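Fig. S4 source data, part A: sequence.
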Amino acid sequence: MIAVESLTFGYPPGYSADDTPSPPIFDGFSWSAARGDAWAVLGPSGCGKSTLLALLAGLRFPTRGHICIDGQDLTRPRPQTGLIIQDYGLLPWATVRQNAELGLQVRRFYGPDGTHAPRVSHRSTGFAPAGASAEAWLERFGLLPVAGQYPGQISGGQRQRTAIARTLALQPDLLLMDEPFSSLDAPTRESLQNLTLELQSEQRLTLVMVTHTIEEAAILGKQILLLNQPPNLSPVIIHNPDAGQPDYRYSSAFLDICRDLRQRMEPTNGRQG
């Protein structure tokens, strides 16, 4: 599904305040993810987590090397990739229903051109068959009672559910999430983590989720990609096969992997990889 080959990337001069070139964030970095995998990307601030997601989304491009998704070189954002960001990305002047339908409206405007929408409806899922409306996802997420309200009138958890509904209505095969639950209270965050696990399995999505929280990485990632302070030369991968199992967050295996991740991220241990 995802193949990152000899990736080198650094921000150009002018990006930083002092107008100096930044050192490479990735330098000869290679990594791959199979279709249907659930990955969490973890690391300290400034290590390149969100940069990697932007590269996978086709919003930034390598200085050297290649990123292939589904066997195709990534040269632009692909219509089968869904991206969910931390601040939800909702239009404040549009209702919950209008926000959820926004992507579908864009696709109808352009038609199946292969750029804004797939040339053919590429898949059908157990819950939402090809062509299902955003309304079905609003119902699934319990948002129909607030569908006529505006983002400023609903809770953070409802705003994030709206963003997820908008994305899933487009039937992605790759879902990228950039710290989507970091601003939510603990019960809401846990509820949406469980929802993400359910949807990833049910919709057969390839999931790559960036988080700064060790516990969230252990809950959501069956594979955890640990990044460190740049330059990242090679991936550090921690296998977490029990993620997604019922009550995993209360198990000794969960505590063990959290302890392992915390030790790996301690500055005194030096840079990994």
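Fig. S4 source data, part B ends here. DSSP finds seven helices and ten strands in the chain.
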